[in-house]
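Lab notebook, design round three. We kept the backbone fixed and only want residue identities now. Task for the bench partner: fill in a sequence for the structure below.
Input structure tokens:
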């Protein structure tokens, strides 16, 4: 029974003490005056009566009513019912508030708190003050309070003849029952009657209509959000203009949370003065008047529900976890069925007559029923996870959270995790976990209805029926008597508040009210307490739990077969059949990923322990430990499936004898798992075991003495684990077996029985039970202290290697040895040098950490389990002793374990090394793990799982190499090799991975290289962390040497002293200065004419190379000063200075090419041939003008050398425009330069600004530049006459601005003609007629007749706002290009796409294509090809083009190289491509070292594969025109690999200048000609080409005139297989010496001596090299020829000669008339376009002539066995390749003088004309066997009379000279006399006509 009301209070408006405008409430009267003893008067009522503040009002408002809730310090809620009415203010009140009136009126106008409903003003100037009647109660009977306060107000307003004191006295003395469903009628003595119904069970909340209203206001989704927010302890704030609504909403939300109780701040109505409460850090549910919405705006972590607007706002930083699926969607749909039953019928053609919707009160209960079901589903089976830790004197109950989540399959679920960790759930466990108590609806539901709910899931109507049944019960609980008598309460008349009340509310007589209260109290004391005893029962546990959603086990489903494998393997182990067990082990380790298999393992091992088979031999021990480790590695720290819990008794049971008296237990080998260092795991285990023992205590009272285990021998407890029983969560993993033992009583049943008997026991018996329980807990605590010390103390506590911070141990960096199973005895022991001095410190540290960890645990569990403080102190004393004892035991174990024989590990396979390659670090044992590529893992490509492989990683001076064998014993003994050059390393990352065999977590490394290799390695346990660290450091040192001389290409076979220090910056300056002085000196010496340099040029020092020039550099250079040549001294910096003469420059690739193209002359006297438009200028031969240009440059004839210096200043890096190629047909030239400097652009193109001080200089520079471009234009034949006329003037304004939509390459919106056309043509081609398919260029005739003479292709950003000068004949084409950093970023993504680090989940093809697209690599290739094709067409149409992008050394180089390759067939030959790369990439200064990050200085810049991107473009063109290239796709891959490998010196350093400085450029000249290692990649290619056709393309059949125009759309581009292919048998095939495996024994010499075996063999994709295993037909035939020649003992013929002969024969057969163009065997039926043949021919069968090495795969190693044969031959035959003169076919021979290449003298040679081979060969002398050169007659265009040139034989007649002109160059010959000259010409002519 309880009082209906505790206090009645009258609160009135009073002035504020500080005199501010606001008033404040003060209590006029309260009854009773004295506080009740059981319920003190709550503070702060005045604030809550007027939550918006106490204010006077100009009108008389109607009375208002609401209920506020206050919570006291004991979490008791007090309900304050407030009825407020207004009375005319007294004069004192008015005066106080007069100054404040205007503000309040404003507030009233805004609908502020003052104005709650329409009101009528009183007399003018009259103000009204609020007065509030308050009832304070602990019961929530809002309607009764409303009626009671209304009655008091009515008596006052209507002036009824009833004493208010009597009514209030009766109200305060009214006693009603709390629950039980009784009905009580009360009267307050004013002729009134009210009926109060009490709920049936007071544990169920009373909600009236509040839940239904909440859903109406906010909707389903919003309420579900709030529900989840409240449960997961977020802050929730309600806003509304109505206080009553706020109270209802908060009450509704709490009702939904049942059976959980909300235990945080709960304030349904928060007064304005307390708004700062909202910034509290703790969760809350609070309601605030909407008028204060503005104050809530800045709250960052509060979820705001606006009841009036129906919205819920969740801040960005707050994440509300949703309900787990499928509960979220099920709940949502049931709620919508309840709230909107019409929804289901809305679409019916004949809807049934409308059903009457439930009343609001009923709907409220239905909604609550839905949430009640939700909780029953969420918490189903929760009682199975309760641990009864103590039963007497009070139950102590703990919840095993991990087991619950694991059983429900919700470990990952954020929502349930947070709920279980929350305060509300802790309250739920302590309140509802009690086994013997009164039960309610929820207990019944969760125990008995879950099966029904599961069955109904998919039947909405059945679900609805269940909801309605539950709703009925809830409704009956609130309204037990439906036919209730009506209330009878007087109410005031209509608008009574507007009448003038004669007097204010009277002051009541305190004494009289107090007297009534005292009377009633006295009467109550006399009466016996009417206590209705509550019915207590055993709470039902319900069925064991099931997963919330039966997920399919996926890959590791619980198939009986898997479990069978596990059982078999264990039985083999225990029967000693080790070989059988070894075979099954990999399958078992795979199976143990599944939960069922792990459980099965623990059960099987458990049985063996019970059969006393726990002492094992070494091999058995290893197997058992390995399986246990595999089980534990997937355990999270929670151990939600109880695997670690089940293994814990086993790891202390299994052991092996190391020596007499020394036993090693399994726990010492399974420590390396996070679960052991998690306190929550140990607590759950401890409580589970305590429960088992306490249950045993009450089940077997006869054996009192035995239940406390003596822990002297700690293993005793492990050897006989208690049998699990239902309800014992330590046995959760055996839930399946529970049905067998249903009759046994669970711990909860036992506890319930004990609680029932407790009151009946005598005091002594009670004491005895309490003591027994306490000693049980205490003994378990000791037992657990032992267990924890076993698993936390490492076997070798002296180890200096601290493996990792243990998660839960805080400061315990335990050096755990769980990786050392049996015996790596010696190997590990030696690597740790244990000095005794350090040993103790280390041990103490580990021991101290373990002691602290155990003490924390003991403190926590003992305090929670009620162990006395004396016992606890005793435990604290024992723990250090336990730990110390255990450490001593371990020392003996460790000592003995080191003496075991080491495990046999596979032998390390040594890798094959290059001749000069040296090992830096010998093999470290590692496992090579599979990465995201499927190949090696036996994926879709088929083939076995080669990875993971076990072997070793070697670090050499050149490569990182892994060699090993697959760990899967079924794969066979295949050697797996994966390697890449150290220089190609782009990223190195430490990883923590599981070793494939032991499934242990180990340190690992992931190395990624730019040659598309990935080594993902886990170090073997024998590799110490220091060895791994050493490997990383050495790798880093080799990858980034401090100086370029440290790279492999330099150290290879080098003789320079290693101790020579790298040059420092300090002496750098002077040496370079002397170099620049030397320029002038050498100029005089070489050129024989005065040459003066304008300014001493100080190049940037070595370290700053590659950075943009400093800001002031231009000004510094522009100071013109004359330098006296006499002051210059010879250089000491340049070693080859004596050889730095013109002749050496002339031999460079550039010059050879200039001469071939006929671009200018450079005779020895340097007199200029005026007829030539261009000349070769030696102005840069000392690299003074531009450091990164070659020494000789092609410039217009008319430009003086001294002007070039000034022109160069306008360009970035001084890279001024120079000619690099001239079209043979249109005579247009291609120029290249760096981008323009800002100044140059301004001066050249922009309107002149106001002159500034430095203006004149800029002008002169721009003027020079203008003149220079004009000179270029004038040098072109067809424009020389038009120098004054503007070629663009014919353009009408119609073209202006009509660009169409501009795409990737745009034109700027300027009034120019062709530039605009070009841009739009590149972009959308809207103006130029329909584009062709595939991105092919439109008809070449598209260019307008009025063409500009010169197009400047520049960067759009750089040419912004540039206007063309109308007098110029050049045109700007601004395009958008990507920068080097974009190439770098794109390449990184491409690498990750082609070589992903970890396996992907979706189909790999999908993810590969997606990541390929993200990388944008193909888009960049597309842009490059697009721009190149544009330039090709401009050149082809006769306009010259200047490519002037970025600094002129990245994208410019790519574009000009591609343009030349597409335009000139010469560059598509092997020799021509070499020349192109040497000229454009090497001589013109592409920064290979900078872009490849070759040295320490470049480490930060990273790898930027500009050259690789160019090769990819060439590969795309090669694919589309396979017959136009002499070289094979393998050649491109070879260059792509070696440009990054640093094996050759070719691609090192950033410019010719740097190469000269290091003495690289001319060292080959005559210095050494031994068979040394090749230093140049070209030399290597030449040598290799002589032996094998691997670089040759058999389909090569060029058309001389063809300009290639490839398709460039992304859809036409293919991913280069260089990025994706891999050969695990031998590593990358680009180091040819390594890629050729050992020769196979011939058939007759089979080692087994049997008959010759079949030649058939299995070829595995990804393992074998397909081109070697299945060479193409031609390679096969050539190989066969070589073999036959060897057998016949004939000197072998070179493959090229053989091939040429075959081609010639083919040509003759194909042309009976002996006329027509030369073509090869495939050209006969090829359509005219000759494009993309490779695409169609690849489909051909291997043997057919059509699959001639078209796909790059087959060509990459075209002669496998031929090279094997070669390897068998002696080296002398290899290089000589000679043949006797007789065997050759010599049609005509004799001596001729031949002029050498550019700048070389005439020499007499012996010439042989061979009509069969169709070639002219020459030798040094008649008997020479080695041919010095060949002129292919197929390339000869004409034979014409010649003229003697400089250095020709003096005595010979002029007519004896003749020239042979080929497509490549002109050969000058001279015979001894005129007749023999005529004879030679006739012979050559006849040979040509025969062909």
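Proposed sequence:
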């Amino acid at each position: 029974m309880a009082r209906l009301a505790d206090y009645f209070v009258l609160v009135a408006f009073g002035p504020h003490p500080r005199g501010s405008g606001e008033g404040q409430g003060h209590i006029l009267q309260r009854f009773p005056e004295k506080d009740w003893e059981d319920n003190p008067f709550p503070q702060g009522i005045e604030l809550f009566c007027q939550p918006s503040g106490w204010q006077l009002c100009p009108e008389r408002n109607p009375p208002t009513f609401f209920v506020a809730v206050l919570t006291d310090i004991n979490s008791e809620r007090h309900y304050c019912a407030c009825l407020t009415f207004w009375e005319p203010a007294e004069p004192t009140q008015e005066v106080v508030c007069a100054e404040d009136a205007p503000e309040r009126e404003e507030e009233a106008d805004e609908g502020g708190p003052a104005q709650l409903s329409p009101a009528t003003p009183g007399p003018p100037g009259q103000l009204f003050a609020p007065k509030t009647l308050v009832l304070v109660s602990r019961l929530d009977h809002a309607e009764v309070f409303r009626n009671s306060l209304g009655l008091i107000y009515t008596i006052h307003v209507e002036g009824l003849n009833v004493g208010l004191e009597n009514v209030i006295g009766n109200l305060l003395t009214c006693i009603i029952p709390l629950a039980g469903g009784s009905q009580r009628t009360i009267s307050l003595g004013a002729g009134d009657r009210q009926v109060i119904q009490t709920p049936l069970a007071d544990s169920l909340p009373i909600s009236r209509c509040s839940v239904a209203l909440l859903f109406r206001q906010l909707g389903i989704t919003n309420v579900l959000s709030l529900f989840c927010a409240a449960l997961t302890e977020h802050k929730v704030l309600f806003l509304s203009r109505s206080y009553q609504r706020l109270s209802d909403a908060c009450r509704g939300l709490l009702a939904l949370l049942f059976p959980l109780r909300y235990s945080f701040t709960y304030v349904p109505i928060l007064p304005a003065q307390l708004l700062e409460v909202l910034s509290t850090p703790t969760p809350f549910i609070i309601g605030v008047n909407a008028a204060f919405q503005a104050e809530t705006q800045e709250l960052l972590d509060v979820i705001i529900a606006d009841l009036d607007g129906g919205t819920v706002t969740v801040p960005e930083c707050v994440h509300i976890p949703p309900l787990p699926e499928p509960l979220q969607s099920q709940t949502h749909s049931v709620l919508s069925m309840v709230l909107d039953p019409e929804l289901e019928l809305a679409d019916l053609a004949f809807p049934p007559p409308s059903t009457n919707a439930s009343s609001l009160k009923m709907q409220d209960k239905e909604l609550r029923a839905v949430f009640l079901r939700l909780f029953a589903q969420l918490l189903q089976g929760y009682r199975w996870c309760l641990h009864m830790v103590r039963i007497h004197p009070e139950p102590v109950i703990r919840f095993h959270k991990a087991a619950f989540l694991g059983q429900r399959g919700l470990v990952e679920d954020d929502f349930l995790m947070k709920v279980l960790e929350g305060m509300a759930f802790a309250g739920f466990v302590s309140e509802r976990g009690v086994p013997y108590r009164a039960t309610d609806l929820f207990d019944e539901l969760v125990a008995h209805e879950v099966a029904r709910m599961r069955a109904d899931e998919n039947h909405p109507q059945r679900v609805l029926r269940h909801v309605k049944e539950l709703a009925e019960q809830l409704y009956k609980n609130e309204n037990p008597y439906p036919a209730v008598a009506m209330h009878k309460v007087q109410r005031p008349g209509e608008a009574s508040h507007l009448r003038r009340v004669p007097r204010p509310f009277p002051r009541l007589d305190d004494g009289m009210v107090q007297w009534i209260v005292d009377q009633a109290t006295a009467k109550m004391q006399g009466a016996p307490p009417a206590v209705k005893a509550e019915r207590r029962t055993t709470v039902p546990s319900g069925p064991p739990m099931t997963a919330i959603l039966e997920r399919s086990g996926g890959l590791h489903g619980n198939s009986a077969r898997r479990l069978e494998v596990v059982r078999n393997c264990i039985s083999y182990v225990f029967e000693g059949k080790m070989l059988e067990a070894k075979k099954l082990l990999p399958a078992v380790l795979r199976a143990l990923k599944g939960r069922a298999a792990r459980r099965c393992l623990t059960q099987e091992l458990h049985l063996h322990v019970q059969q006393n088979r726990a002492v094992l031999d070494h091999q058995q021990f290893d197997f058992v430990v390995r399986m246990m480790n595999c089980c534990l590695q997937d355990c999270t720290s929670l151990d939600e499936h109880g695997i670690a819990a089940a293994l814990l008794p086993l790891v202390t049971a299994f052991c092996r004898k190391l020596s007499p008296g020394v036993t090693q237990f399994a726990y010492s080998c399974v420590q390396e798992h996070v679960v052991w260092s998690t306190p929550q795991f140990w607590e759950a285990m401890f409580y589970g075991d305590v429960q088992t023992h306490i249950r045993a205590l009450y089940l077997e009272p006869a054996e009192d003495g035995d239940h406390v285990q003596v822990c002297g021998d700690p293993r005793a407890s492990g050897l006989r684990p208690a049998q699990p029983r239902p309800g014992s969560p330590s046995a959760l993993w055996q839930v399946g077996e529970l049905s067998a033992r249903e009759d046994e009583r669970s711990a909860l049943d036992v506890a319930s029985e004990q609680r029932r008997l407790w009151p009946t026991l005598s005091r002594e018996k009670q004491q005895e039970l309490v003591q027994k329980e306490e000693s049980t807990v205490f003994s378990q605590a000791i037992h657990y202290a032992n267990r924890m010390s076993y698993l936390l103390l490492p076997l070798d506590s002296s180890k200096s290697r601290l493996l990792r911070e243990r998660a839960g141990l805080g400061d315990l960096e335990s050096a755990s040895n769980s990786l050392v199973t049996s015996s790596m005895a010696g190997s590990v022991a030696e690597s740790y040098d244990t000095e005794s001095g350090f040993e103790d410190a280390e041990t103490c540290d580990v021991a101290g950490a373990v002691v602290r960890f155990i003490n924390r645990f003991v403190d926590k569990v003992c305090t929670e389990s009620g162990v006395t403080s004396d016992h606890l102190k005793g435990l604290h004393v024992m723990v250090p002793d336990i730990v110390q004892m255990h450490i001593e035991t371990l020392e003996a174990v460790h000592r003995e374990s080191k003496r075991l024989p080491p495990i046999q590990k596979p032998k390390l396979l040594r890798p094959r090394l290059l001749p000069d390659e040296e090992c830096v670090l010998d093999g470290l044992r590692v496992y090579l793990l599979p990465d995201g590529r499927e190949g090696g893992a036996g994926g879709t490509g088929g083939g076995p799982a080669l990875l993971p492989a076990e072997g070793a990683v070697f670090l050499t001076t050149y490569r990182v190499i892994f060699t090993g064998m697959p760990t899967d014993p079924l794969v066979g003994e295949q050697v797996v090799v994966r390697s890449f050059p150290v220089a190609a390393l782009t990223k190195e990352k430490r990883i923590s991975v599981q070793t494939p065999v032991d499934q242990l977590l180990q340190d690992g490394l992931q190395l990624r290289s730019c040659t598309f290799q990935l080594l993902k390695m886990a170090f073997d346990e024998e590799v110490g962390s220091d060895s791994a660290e050493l490997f990383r450091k050495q790798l880093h040192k080799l990858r980034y040497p401090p100086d370029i001389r440290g790279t492999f290409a330099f150290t290879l076979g080098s003789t320079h002293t290693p101790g020579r220090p790298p040059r420092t910056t300090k002496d750098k300056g002077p040496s370079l200065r002397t170099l620049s002085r030397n320029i002038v000196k050498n100029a005089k010496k070489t050129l024989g004419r005065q040459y003066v340099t304008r300014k001493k040029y100080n190049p940037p020092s070595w370290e700053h190379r590659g950075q943009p020039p400093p800001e002031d550099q231009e000004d510094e250079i522009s100071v013109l000063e004359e330098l006296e040549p006499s002051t210059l001294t010879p250089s000491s910096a340049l070693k080859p200075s004596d050889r730095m003469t013109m002749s050496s420059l002339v031999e460079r690739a550039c010059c050879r090419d200039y001469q071939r193209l006929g671009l200018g002359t450079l005779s020895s006297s340097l007199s200029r041939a005026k007829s030539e438009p261009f000349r070769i200028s030696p102005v840069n031969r000392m690299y003074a003008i531009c450091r990164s240009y070659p020494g000789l440059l092609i410039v217009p004839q008319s430009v003086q050398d001294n002007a070039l210096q000034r022109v160069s200043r306008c360009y970035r890096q001084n890279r001024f425009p120079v000619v690099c190629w001239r079209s043979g047909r249109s005579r247009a030239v291609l120029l290249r330069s760096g981008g323009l400097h800002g100044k140059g652009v301004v001066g050249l193109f922009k309107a002149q600004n106001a002159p500034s001080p430095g203006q004149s200089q800029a002008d002169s520079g721009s003027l020079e530049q203008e003149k220079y471009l004009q000179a270029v234009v004038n040098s072109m034949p067809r424009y020389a006459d038009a120098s004054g006329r503007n070629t663009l003037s014919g353009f009408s304004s119609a073209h202006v601005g009509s660009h169409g939509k501009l795409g990737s390459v745009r034109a700027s919106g300027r009034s120019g003609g062709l530039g605009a056309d070009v841009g739009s043509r590149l972009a959308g081609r809207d103006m130029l007629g329909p584009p062709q398919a595939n991105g092919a260029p439109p008809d070449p005739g598209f260019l307008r007749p009025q063409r500009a003479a010169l197009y400047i292709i520049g960067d759009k950003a750089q040419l912004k706002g540039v206007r063309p000068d109308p007098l110029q004949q050049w045109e700007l084409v601004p395009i958008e290009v990507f920068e080097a950093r974009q190439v770098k970023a794109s390449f990184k993504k491409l690498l990750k796409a082609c070589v992903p680090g970890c396996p992907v989940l979706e189909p790999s093809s999908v993810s590969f294509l997606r990541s390929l697209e993200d990388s944008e690599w193909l888009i960049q290739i597309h842009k490059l090809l697009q721009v190149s094709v544009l330039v090709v067409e401009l050149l082809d149409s006769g306009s010259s083009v200047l490519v002037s992008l970025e600094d002129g050394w990245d994208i410019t180089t790519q574009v000009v190289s591609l343009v030349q390759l597409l335009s000139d067939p010469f560059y598509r030959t092997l020799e021509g491509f070499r020349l192109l790369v040497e000229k454009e990439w090497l001589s013109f200064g592409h920064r290979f070292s900078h872009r490849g990050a070759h040295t320490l200085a470049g480490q930060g810049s990273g790898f930027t594969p500009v050259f690789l991107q160019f090769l990819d473009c060439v590969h795309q063109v090669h694919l589309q025109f396979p017959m136009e290239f002499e070289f094979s796709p393998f050649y491109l891959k070879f260059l792509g690999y070696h440009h990054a490998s640093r094996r050759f010196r070719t691609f090192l350093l950033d410019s010719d200048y740097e190469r000269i400085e290091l003495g690289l450029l001319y060292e080959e000249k005559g210095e050494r000609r031994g068979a040394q290692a090749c230093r140049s990649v070209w030399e290597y290619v030449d040598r290799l080409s002589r032996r094998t056709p691997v670089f040759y393309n058999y389909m090569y059949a060029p058309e001389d005139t063809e300009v290639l125009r490839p398709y460039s759309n992304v859809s036409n581009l293919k991913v280069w297989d260089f990025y994706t292919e891999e050969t695990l048998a031998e590593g990358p095939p680009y180091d040819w010496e390594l890629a050729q495996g050992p020769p196979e024994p011939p058939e007759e010499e089979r080692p087994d001596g049997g008959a010759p075996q079949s030649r058939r063999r299995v070829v595995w994709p990804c393992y074998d090299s397909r081109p070697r295993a299945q060479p193409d037909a031609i390679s096969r035939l050539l190989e066969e020829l070589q073999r036959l020649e060897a057998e016949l003992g004939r000197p072998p013929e070179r493959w090229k000669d053989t091939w040429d002969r075959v081609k010639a024969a083919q040509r003759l057969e194909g042309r009976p008339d002996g006329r027509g163009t030369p073509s090869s065997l495939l050209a006969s039926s090829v359509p005219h376009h000759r494009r993309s043949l490779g695409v169609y021919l690849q489909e051909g069968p291997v043997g057919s002539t059509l699959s001639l090495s078209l796909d790059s795969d087959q060509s990459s190693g075209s002669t496998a066995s031929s090279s094997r044969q070669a390897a068998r031959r002696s080296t002398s035959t290899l290089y000589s390749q000679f043949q006797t003169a007789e065997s050759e076919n010599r049609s005509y021979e004799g001596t001729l003088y031949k002029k050498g290449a550019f700048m070389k003298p005439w020499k007499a040679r012996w010439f042989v004309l061979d009509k069969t081979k169709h070639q002219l060969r020459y030798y040094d002398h008649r008997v020479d066997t080695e041919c010095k050169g060949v002129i292919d007659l197929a390339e000869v265009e004409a034979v014409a009379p010649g003229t003697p040139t400089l250095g020709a034989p003096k005595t010979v007649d002029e007519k004896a000279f003749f020239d042979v002109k080929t497509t490549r160059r002109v050969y000058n010959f001279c015979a001894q006399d005129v007749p023999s000259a005529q004879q030679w010409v006739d012979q050559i002519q006849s040979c040509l006509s025969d062909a």
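Keep this in mind before ordering anything: The chain has a mean pLDDT of 76.
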